[in-house]
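re: that chain from earlier
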Amino acid sequence: MKRRALLVPLAALCLLPLAVAHAQGVALSARDRADITRIEAYLNNLRTLRARFLQIAPEGGLSEGTLWLQRPGRMRFEYDPPTQLLLVASGGNGLFYDKSLKQVSYFSLSTTPLGILLAENIRLAGDVTVAGLHRLPGQIHVTMIRTRAPAEGSLTLVFADDPLSLRQWSVIDAQQRETRVSLFKATLGGQFDQKLFDTADPTLRE
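^ sequence. v structure.
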């Protein structure tokens, strides 16, 4: 796969405006509210996660890499060689780096889906609105939007159920194109070298 083909899906995940699946929240049943409470508890208890990922781009291209997540606020999203792309988030800001071109782009987590996942206290109410919740055998899918800016788009998280675990997320961009990221070989807990999340570290640009 050409390296340039991966720039669009990564930008769709982190930088582009997002299309809204639903402009308003949906009516939630008692069972829905109970599941949302479980999902909030799971996400808030998730402090560190390391996983391999498989990304499906809007045009169908596949790519793989490694993800490190440390809540609150830190994430590293690194593609396997020969692709030389890197995303690092820390301190409310993010860095998208093309190593081969030594080009850096910055963004605020508050304008991306990553901001929802990395928040200090994840609450699927108030600033975040649940726009949809549905179940498949062994799975729960929850779609969310930012309450004050619904036009910015939607993020869908997919959880395996019993026990609850995050398996996938997807983002739909302004052109109704979906970028999907699936996690596998996930390890919860443990400590990471904090240099992984240092957006000022010059080694990120080597």
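Residues 27 and 109 are 28 Å apart (CA to CA).
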